[in-house]
Design brief:
heterodimer, A: mainly beta, 8-stranded mixed β-sheet, 4-stranded antiparallel β-sheet, globular, B: mainly beta, 6-stranded mixed β-sheet, 5-stranded antiparallel β-sheet
Chain lengths: 227, 444
């Protein structure tokens, strides 16, 4: 019979630690910022080495970054970069879409693979499988309906669909359950900021959307950290 | 009609002194005869003059008189010596008590000039107080006003005499003054009858603002003592009850409309045992400015109707103070000390260890003991209770974290044997207020 033994409690915390909870990383005004705390208790700090970028997303798969004409993807297993002639990008888990170029990029075996998608409608966001488009008030993933009506940007990330309609930001969880948060304007930015967090911007205000099941909530991101 | 004769005296050469009347266009020599502006009987007009030394030597000014009924010097001469090219300014007042033609002799040292003026009955200027005309005295009328805010005075032309009088002209000599609801002119007023109208002005700056109001022969100076308008006392509109780890909108309202554009400030502070940098407004500061538009009952924060306040993770009394130049008001909320709140938890295992991560906050910063109880996949206990006392570790962390009461605890349990036997764990964490038991954590 297999045996199970927890080592003595004296050794329990040999590798343990206490720290401020780091919840997300976002890009604001070209500067990368680290967010600490909890929902509704957000502390803003400069990211390590005061990094800057033109576009950024911290996804569950890795980090996307555009800086000085180069697109970077970094994860535990992979690290790729390639020249890029745009500063605008939409990101999800392991896909990036460049609306100005009409290109989609994802990390392959040997590098960043590029392909284009011909999906009808107005580009509205990105899902791991491809481009999200809006047509006649419906959000689709290359023809597959996702939501009946949307405004602003949409995103499929970590198995959740995030979209906005009529004053409500909706997170459709992987089990189909929907949770909502009130937002008074359609978001013009939706970017993964952490495993359970989305950075969104609406009417010039930055928000952090928690997308964990049962805990969907919207927090204002303070403009700068207190001195 | 009272008529005074005047003597035509040959005027000695005014070789040494030149007498001029001061006009908006500059000094105008008066010559031998000078006619003053007509005045309303019972009223007075004043003319400013100057005597200029045209000689190349010092000239003592010894004589300055005006002789003639209804004429006077505004101030007696104070002996003065004029340097070459220097001038002495003085004023002659014409105060007729009855209609007629008047004259006087103005003497400055050995130089003389004839002054002439006419007087007639004319309506007076008045302010309306409780709907009744009150004569504006010769010194004018003064009222308080706010910069940038329209001030409206109710004024009138008033026949305070015993015969019918006609007024054919009403005007205000100032580009920022408007006269409203003027009567149709010419207008004949019966004795004791008045015709009301409004004088409206928007003074731009603080300080005295003066304008001449004219109605026929009547001229009066209207002076507005202009100060900056003050916002009313602010009132806070916020939730009655607040808790830690919350974001709440704060509004600032006023019980009366703002008299002019203005501004104020909100400050948040915590009276508690520990500072908490997470207590801040959405601008990232413990202070935020608000703006108030003229006529508004609510302040805005960079165009938004409210500002978000983050309540932090520390127990104490949270105080928000709204201030304008009129004063300040404050609202406070008690953030009760509470057992530790765990916001998220995670349990993972590897072949060599089990790792439990807890994120939450302790608003008392007295976290200390933890209990762990492991269960197998069937729910049966695996071993006994494991207790850890981390009081000094927590205390050390809170002293240096600069993140308020939030923490993330990562507990790693080295193990031997088959890690897959572990199905779930119960965790308890305690502070000085009480013990928090987490829902059973399953291992994926």
């Amino acid at each position: 019979m297999k045996r199970f033994l927890l080592l003595l409690s004296a050794a329990v915390f040999a590798q343990s630690g206490l720290d401020a909870p780091h919840i997300a990383r976002i890009l604001r005004d070209g500067r990368l910022l680290s967010l600490y705390g909890l929902a509704a208790n957000v502390l803003v700090r400069d990211a390590a080495n005061s990094e800057s970028a033109d576009a950024f997303a911290a996804t569950a798969e890795g980090v996307w970054l555009i800086r000085e004409g180069l697109l970077h993807f970094r994860s535990v297993e992979k690290q790729f970069e390639r020249p890029l002639s745009t500063r605008q990008a939409w990101f999800t888990d392991s896909n990036a879409y460049f609306p100005e170029l009409g290109l989609q990029v994802h990390p392959g075996i040997d590098g960043l693979e590029t392909h284009s998608q011909d999906c009808p409608g107005e580009p509205a966001g990105i899902a791991p499988g491809g481009l999200l488009t809006r047509s006649e008030g419906r959000l689709t993933a290359c023809g597959v309906p996702l939501a009946s009506a949307t405004e602003g940007r949409a995103l499929v990330y970590a198995g959740r669909t995030i979209y906005y309609h009529d004053g409500l930001l909706t997170v459709r969880q992987p089990d189909g359950r929907e949770e909502q948060a009130v937002l008074d304007a359609a978001p013009d930015l939706l970017a993964p900021a952490g495993a359970d967090w989305i950075h969104l911007s609406a009417s010039g205000q930055d928000y952090l959307l928690r997308i964990a099941p049962g805990k969907v909530s919207l927090s204002v991101i303070p403009q700068r950290s207190r001195p | 009609v009272k008529v005074l004769f005047f003597i035509a005296v040959a005027v000695p050469a005014l070789a040494q002194l030149q007498i001029s009347v001061l006009t908006p266009e500059g000094p105008q020599p008066v010559g031998v005869n000078f006619t003053l502006p007509a005045a309303a009987a019972g009223d007075s007009v004043e003319v400013r003059l100057r005597a200029l030394n045209l000689s190349a030597s010092q000239l003592p000014l010894q004589t300055l008189t005006v002789s003639g009924a209804a004429f006077s010097l505004a101030a007696p001469l104070q002996p003065v010596t004029l340097a070459p090219g220097a001038a002495h300014e003085f004023a002659v007042r014409f105060s007729p008590q009855a209609p007629g033609s008047y004259s006087a002799l103005l003497t400055v040292n050995s130089s003389t000039a004839f002054l002439r003026a006419n007087a007639e009955w004319a309506p007076a200027l008045a302010v309306l107080i409780d709907g009744k005309p009150v004569l504006i005295p010769a010194g004018g009328y003064a009222a308080d006003a706010f910069a940038g805010v329209e001030t409206v005075l109710s004024v009138a032309v008033w026949n305070n005499r015993t015969v019918p009088l006609t007024v054919s002209q009403i005007s205000a000599a100032h580009p920022s003054v408007r006269l409203r609801n003027l009567p149709t002119l010419p207008l004949t007023l019966e004795p004791d009858q008045h015709a009301a109208f409004q004088l409206a002005a928007i003074p731009e700056r603080e300080g005295p603002f003066t304008a001449q109001l004219n109605a026929g022969l009547a001229t009066r100076t209207i002076t507005l003592n202009v100060t900056r308008p003050k916002l009313p006392l602010p009132r806070l509109a916020a939730a009655a009850v607040l808790a830690n780890a919350a974001q709440t909108p704060i509004r600032v309202a006023f019980d009366e409309p703002a008299p002019a554009d203005g501004a104020g400030k909100l400050r948040v502070s915590l009276q508690g045992a520990f500072p908490d940098p997470a207590i801040q407004f959405s601008n990232g500061s413990s202070e935020v400015n608000f703006q108030v538009a003229k006529g508004s009952l609510e302040a805005t924060f960079e165009g938004r109707p409210s500002v978000t306040l983050q309540t932090g993770t520390t127990a104490g009394t949270l105080i928000v103070e709204a201030s304008t130049e009129s004063g300040s008001t404050r609202q406070s909320w008690l953030l009760q000390s509470s057992p530790i709140v765990i916001d998220s938890s995670r349990a993972i295992r590897s072949p060599q260890s089990i790792e439990i991560t807890l994120s939450g906050y302790d608003n008392t910063r007295t976290a200390g003991s933890l209990n762990f109880r492991f269960f197998d996949r069937a729910g049966a206990p695996l071993g006994g209770l494991i207790t850890a006392t981390l009081q000094s570790e927590f205390a050390s962390y809170f002293r240096s974290s600069e993140a308020g009461g939030v923490f993330q605890l990562r507990a790693v349990f080295p193990l031997t044997g088959d890690a897959t036997m572990v199905g779930s764990v119960l965790v308890e964490i305690a502070n000085s207020i009480g013990r928090t038991e987490l829902p059973r954590l399953g291992f994926p």
